[in-house]
C-alpha cells in the first residue's frame, strides 16, 4: 500500500499540487516502520481524496521548538474517518490529527522522550523526575497521561496534577519538588484546534540555549519510538495532592507588599473574574477568598472547556474576550474586571472610569502599574534605598513600553531588556540566583533570598512583556496570571485608599514621566505560503530599511539577527530575526515574526510631553500611531502583493 501511496504523492508533486518540503516529509513518514492504523488510514484517505492542501498543512514542516516550545494543530481542517474513530457525531475527534506538523501522539512522545534523554545525559541524576501539567484544551489531559506513560517506560518518575493546572504552577512545582524538568501541555490562547508542548529545565524556566537545541537533537535522533526498550515494570505516575496547591499559593502570597492595601481592596472594591474556561479557576478564587476580596466569577466561563464556547478567542489581550465579564460588572456595580488565559500565564483587565464605563488596560499599562507600584513601595518600606538601589532590577522585553525605563531611571534601579519570550527573563533570574551565593536556594525564606540578592546579586522587582505577561517574584520562572490578579487587586486597593482608581494612578504616572503610547499591528499569513510571505516581509525590511515614516527621518537601525547586541549587564543577546528602527520625535518601530502564531508583528512606540495637558498628549499620540499603522500597511502592500491584515 505504501508504494501505491508514494506513487500518488510523487505524481501530485510533479504536477505542483504539493510543496517540495511536503513531498520530502511524506516520503520520510511513509518509511517509518511503526505507523499506527490511524496514521496509515488517515494518510490513505487524504491522498485518495486528493486533499493536497490539507497534506501541505500537515507535512510542509516538522514541529520545532520556538519561543513557546512546540505548537500546532491537534485537530485537522479535514478530519479523517480514522481520526474520528468512535466519535462520528462529536465535533472533537477521538484521535489527534496525523502529520509531522501536527500535535499528535508521535510528536508528543518524541518531545517527551527527547527531553528526558537530554536531561538524563546533561544532569546525570537518577531517578530522573519530571513534572507534567496541562490546561483545559482538547487532548491536553490525554497528552499529559501519554507523556507520563512513555516516561515511565524509560524509568523516569512523572508527577501529574489531579486535573488542569496553570503554566506558572508547573514552573513553581518543578522547583518545589526539585525535579529535573517539566512539561506543560498547552497552546495558551491559540484557537481551539491547537495544542502545544512546553519543556522546562530544572530551574523551572522554559528551555533556553543550549538546552533547547540539544533537546531538538535528541528528538531528531529518535528514528523510531519502538527503538526505546520498555522496562519490565513501568513506573506509575505520581498524582500530586493538595499540598502542591498550598505551597504554590503561599509562594504567591509572598508578593504582597502592603497587607493594608489588600484589606482596603476587600472593603472598597468588587471584582469580576473570568478564567475563560481555563486553569485560573483552580487558584485565583482561593487567593481571593483567603484575603477577603469581594468577587464574582462569570458563571458560563468558569467551566473548563477546550472549545472556549463563549468567546471567539480566549485571549485576555482582546477586549472582546472580557465582554461577558464587563457585562456582569456593569450589572453588579463592580469596579474591576480580571481575565486570565487558558493556561493561566497572561492576565487582562478592565477598570471602571468616572463615567461608569469600563476601560481595558493594555499589557504595557498593566506592567507600568506593577513596575511603579512595586518600586515606589519598596522604597517607602525601606527595603530599597539609595545605597542598594543599583542592586534592584526591572526586566522588560524590547517590545515593551519604555515607560518602565523611565521609572527605573527615576528610582535609580537597573532596567534590563530581553528578547520576547519569558524564558529570557527566567534565564536572568537564574543568573541572579547563582550570584547571591545561597546553597539550596529554595530552602531559604523569601526574606533571606531577598537580603542575599541585595547584597551579592540582583533583586528582581518585577518583569513583564507587552503581551500581558508579568512576574513579580522569582519563585516561578515564567509569567504568572494568578499572581498578577492578586497584585492588581493590591494596587487597586492602595489606590482606593488614596482616593484614586487604577486609571487615576496610571494618569499620575504619565503626569510624572510623560505620556508613553504603543500600538501592536499584526498581519496574519497562514499555512506554508504564509510562512514564506512572513520571511519575505522580514527580508524586505532587513535589506531595504525605511528611511522615514510620516516625515520622521530614521535615526538608527538594528538587526538582532545579524549584529551582536549586549544588554545593560554585558550579556550577549541571542540572535533572533528582530528589526528595530528609531525615528525622529521619539518614534520607534520593531518588526518580528511571532514564535507561536502565523503572524508578523509590528510594534509602534511614541511618547509625548504632557506640558500642554495629558488629554492632549493622549489624543496626539493616538492619532500618530493610527496614521503610522495605516502607512505601514500600505508600505507592506508595496513590498509584497495582497497581504491580509488583522
TrEMBL record:
An example molecular function term from Gene Ontology annotations: magnesium ion binding
Cofactor (UniProt): Mg(2+)
Keyword vocabulary terms for this entry: Isomerase, Magnesium, Metal-binding, Phosphoprotein
Database matches in PANTHER family: PHOSPHOGLUCOMUTASE 2B-RELATED (PTHR45745:SF1), PHOSPHOMANNOMUTASE 45A (PTHR45745)
Family, as annotated: Belongs to the phosphohexose mutase family.
Name of the protein described by the UniProt record: Phosphomannomutase
GO annotation, biological process: carbohydrate metabolic process; purine ribonucleoside salvage
InterPro entries reported in the protein's UniProt record: A-D-PHexomutase_a/b/a-I (IPR005844), A-D-PHexomutase_a/b/a-I/II/III (IPR016055), A-D-PHexomutase_a/b/a-II (IPR005845), A-D-PHexomutase_a/b/a-III (IPR005846), A-D-PHexomutase_C_sf (IPR036900), A-D-PHexomutase_CS (IPR016066), Alpha-D-phosphohexomutase_SF (IPR005841)
Domain Alpha-D-phosphohexomutase alpha/beta/alpha: 102-223, 247-352, 363-437, 453-509
SUPFAM superfamilies hit by this protein: Phosphoglucomutase, C-terminal domain (SSF55957), Phosphoglucomutase, first 3 domains (SSF53738)
Source lineage: Bacteria, Pseudomonadati, Verrucomicrobiota, Methylacidiphilae, Methylacidiphilales
Pfam families named among the record's database cross-references: PGM_PMM_I (PF02878), PGM_PMM_II (PF02879), PGM_PMM_III (PF02880)
Entry keyword Repeat: no
Amino acid at each position: 500500500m505504501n508504494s501505491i501511496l508514494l506513487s500518488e504523492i510523487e505524481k501530485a508533486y510533479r504536477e505542483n499540487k504539493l510543496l517540495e518540503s511536503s513531498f520530502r516529509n511524506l516520503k520520510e513518514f511513509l518509511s517509518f516502520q511503526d505507523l499506527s492504523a490511524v496514521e496509515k488510514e488517515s494518510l490513505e484517505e487524504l491522498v485518495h481524496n486528493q486533499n493536497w492542501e490539507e497534506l501541505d498543512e500537515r507535512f510542509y514542516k516538522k514541529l520545532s521548538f520556538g519561543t513557546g516550545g512546540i505548537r500546532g494543530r491537534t485537530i485537522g481542517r479535514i478530519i479523517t474517518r480514522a481520526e474520528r474513530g468512535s466519535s462520528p457525531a462529536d465535533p472533537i475527534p477521538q484521535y489527534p490529527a496525523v502529520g509531522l506538523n501536527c500535535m499528535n501522539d508521535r510528536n508528543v512522545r518524541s518531545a517527551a522522550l527527547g527531553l528526558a534523554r537530554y536531561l538524563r545525559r546533561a544532569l546525570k541524576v537518577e531517578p530522573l523526575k519530571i513534572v507534567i501539567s496541562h490546561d483545559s484544551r482538547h487532548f491536553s489531559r490525554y497528552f499529559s497521561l501519554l507523556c507520563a506513560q512513555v516516561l515511565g517506560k524509560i524509568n523516569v518518575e512523572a508527577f501529574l496534577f489531579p486535573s488542569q493546572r496553570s503554566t506558572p504552577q508547573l514552573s513553581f512545582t518543578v522547583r518545589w519538588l526539585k525535579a529535573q524538568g517539566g512539561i506543560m501541555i498547552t497552546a495558551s490562547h491559540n484557537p481551539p484546534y491547537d495544542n502545544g508542548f512546553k519543556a522546562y529545565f530544572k530551574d523551572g524556566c522554559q528551555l533556553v540555549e543550549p538546552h533547547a537545541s540539544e533537546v531538538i537533537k535528541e528528538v531528531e535522533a529518535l528514528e523510531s519510538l519502538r527503538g526505546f526498550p520498555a522496562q519490565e515494570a513501568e513506573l506509575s505516575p505520581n498524582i500530586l495532592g493538595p499540598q502542591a496547591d498550598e505551597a504554590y499559593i503561599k509562594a504567591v502570597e509572598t508578593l504582597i507588599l502592603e497587607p493594608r492595601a489588600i484589606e482596603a481592596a476587600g472593603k472598597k472594591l468588587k471584582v469580576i473574574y473570568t478564567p475563560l474556561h481555563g486553569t485560573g479557576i483552580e487558584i485565583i478564587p482561593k487567593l481571593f477568598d483567603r484575603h477577603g476580596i469581594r468577587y464574582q466569577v462569570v458563571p458560563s466561563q468558569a467551566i473548563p472547556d477546550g472549545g472556549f464556547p463563549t468567546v471567539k478567542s480566549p485571549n485576555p489581550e482582546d477586549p472582546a474576550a472580557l465582554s461577558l465579564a464587563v457585562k456582569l460588572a456593569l450589572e453588579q456595580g463592580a469596579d474591576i474586571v480580571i481575565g486570565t488565559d487558558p493556561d493561566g500565564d497572561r492576565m487582562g483587565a478592565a477598570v471602571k472610569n468616572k463615567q461608569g464605563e469600563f476601560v481595558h488596560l493594555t499589557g504595557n499599562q498593566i506592567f507600568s502599574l506593577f513596575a511603579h507600584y512595586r518600586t515606589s513601595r519598596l522604597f517607602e518600606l525601606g527595603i530599597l534605598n539609595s545605597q542598594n538601589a543599583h542592586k534592584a532590577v526591572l526586566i522588560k522585553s524590547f517590545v515593551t513600553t519604555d515607560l518602565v525605563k523611565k521609572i527605573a531611571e527615576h528610582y535609580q534601579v537597573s532596567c534590563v531588556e530581553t528578547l520576547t519570550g519569558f524564558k529570557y527573563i527566567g534565564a536572568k533570574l537564574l543568573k541572579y540566583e547563582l550570584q547571591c551565593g545561597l546553597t539550596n536556594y529554595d530552602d531559604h525564606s523569601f526574606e533571606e533570598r531577598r537580603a542575599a540578592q541585595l547584597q551579592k546579586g540582583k533583586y528582581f522587582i518585577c518583569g513583564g512583556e507587552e503581551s500581558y505577561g508579568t512576574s513579580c517574584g522569582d519563585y516561578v520562572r515564567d509569567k504568572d496570571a494568578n499572581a498578577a490578579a492578586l497584585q492588581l487587586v493590591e494596587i487597586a486597593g492602595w489606590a482606593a485608599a488614596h482616593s484614586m482608581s487604577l486609571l487615576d494612578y496610571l494618569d499620575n504616572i504619565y503626569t510624572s514621566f510623560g505620556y508613553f503610547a504603543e500600538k501592536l499591528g499584526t498581519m496574519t499569513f497562514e499555512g506554508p505560503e504564509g510562512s514564506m510571505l512572513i520571511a519575505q516581509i522580514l527580508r524586505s525590511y532587513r535589506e531595504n530599511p525605511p528611511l522615514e515614516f510620516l516625515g520622521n527621518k530614521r535615526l538608527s537601525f538594528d538587526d538582532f539577527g545579524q549584529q551582536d547586541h549586549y544588554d545593560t549587564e554585558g550579556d550577549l543577546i541571542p540572535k533572533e530575526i528582530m528589526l528595530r528602527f528609531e525615528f525622529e520625535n521619539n518614534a520607534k518601530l520593531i518588526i518580528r515574526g511571532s514564535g507561536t502564531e502565523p503572524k508578523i508583528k509590528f510594534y509602534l512606540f511614541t511618547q509625548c510631553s504632557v506640558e500642554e495637558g495629558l488629554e492632549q498628549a493622549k489624543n496626539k499620540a493616538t492619532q500618530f500611531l493610527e496614521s503610522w499603522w495605516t502607512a505601514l500597511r500600505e508600505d507592506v502592500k508595496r513590498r509584497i502583493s495582497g497581504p491580509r491584515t488583522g
